[in-house]
Write a structure and sequence with these properties.
It comes from Caballeronia novacaledonica. With 390 residues, this protein is α+β, with helices and mostly antiparallel strands. It has 2 domains: 225 residues, FAD/NAD(P)-binding domain (3-Layer(bba) Sandwich); 123 residues, D-Amino Acid Oxidase, Chain A, domain 2, CATH 3.30.9.10. It has 12 helices and 20 strands. It has an 8-stranded mixed sheet, sandwiched between helices. A 6-stranded mixed sheet has the order 8-2-1-12-19-18. β5 and β6 form a beta hairpin. α1 packs parallel to α8 and α8 runs antiparallel to α10. The protein is globular. The two termini are 40 Å apart. The mean pLDDT is 97. The structure holds 8-demethyl-8-dimethylamino-flavin-adenine-dinucleotide and P-hydroxybenzoic acid. P-hydroxybenzoic acid binds next to loops.
Amino acid sequence: MRTQVGIVGAGPAGLLLSHLLHLNGIESVVLETRARDQIESTIRAGVLEQGTMDLLTESGVGDRMKAEGALHHGFELAFDGKRRRIDLKDLTGHAITVYAQHEVIKDLVAARVAAGGSVVFGVSDVSIHGIETTSPSLHYVHDGQPHVLDCDFIIGCDGSQGVSRTAIPQSLRRDYERVFPFGWFGILVEGGPTAEELIYARNDRGFALVSTRSPNVQRMYFQCDPKDSVDAWSDDRIWAEMHARVDSADGQQVVDGRIFQKNIVGMRSFVSATMQHGRLFLAGDAAHIVPPTGAKGLNLAVSDVRILKNALGEYYKTGKGELLAAYSETALKRIWRAEHFSYWMTRLMHRLDDASPFEQQLQLAELEHVTTSRTAAKSMAENYVGSVVV
Ligand code: RFL
Ligand code: PHB
């Protein structure tokens, strides 16, 4: 089999790239280890930046997001027994949409299928060959049979546990990493919303986040030990913790509901550079991870794909490879901005066990500052909506 662009991984990065290339008349094949129903039901991120919303809309896959997603013009910071609002719209002119990542995945898979695109689910033993030549190939097994896919380019969109990153020789790559000593306990709740907007809460007991999925389904998280077990947390214990961390002194309370899913995720910051070698290019979590506090993971995957789509578009239109040659350098500017913001927001909002009482007071002083100084609030808001210029 032969295609122009071989894509490893059908996450948001791989599927969106395949869709955008198709709109530019460029053929691709996406190889995915999991089944379609698995990728369409894995619960992950929820916040789409304005730029992500715009790209989905412009490329014709934004209808359901517009109809079913919730447009938010701000969010709230809860600390010291009170809640203060960050008015994203007023500070930046932009908004965000809360729309689950697996819904974006469903929309993208539907668009690829409708266009006759090739997404091969349930593959195994994917390996990458010949990236230092002009005819690289992907080897894989499907339905028990070995296959070879010859391509012009290979794009590794296979997430943090994929095989693409390690196809770039270690001697050319540098990994930068910070593992946080805490995780997020995530719950899905059947019940009404607590507030109209997201609440990020800083509390001496630890961080908590109140997000949403629909008028009847809410998404909440609280800081926990990454090695903790979901079984150690009864529903009553979870609600007691959420109330202790989020409720305000003036009586505003988290709205309880029926918990129907629980999971724990670890938190880390990670960048692998370079993101390209020969005919192989990495995009999304395959090359970088952010802690979810800044809601950047999915949006960064989308911004990598936007850059790649333009670079591949230029190559196939003019034969020029300048944008492709500059891909890693171009993408890393935005990635490091988001890494810094996510790290900063994580340290601002979480209970840091290594922090002295002095540093805890600094955390509160900084929260007072970002919620009272328009200049500080604007910087936070620009980073959050993704409008900051890099
Ligand atoms: P994805 O979404 O991980 O997709 C990669 C796809 O590649 C497949 N794959 C392979 N396919 C073929 N061959 C192989 N050898 C393969 N190895 C893997 C995988 O099955 C998968 O389908 O990466 P992508 O497209 O770069 O998208 C990035 C986003 O998914 C990610 O940044 C965010 O979801 C991060 N993230 C969160 N971000 C937030 O902003 N808020 C959150 O609440 C949030 N929760 C999460 C998350 C990431 C998680 N991970 C990575 C485990 C929760 C989890 C559990
Ligand atoms: C979510 O709704 O899953 C969500 C929202 C904001 C974040 C992270 C996750 O910062």
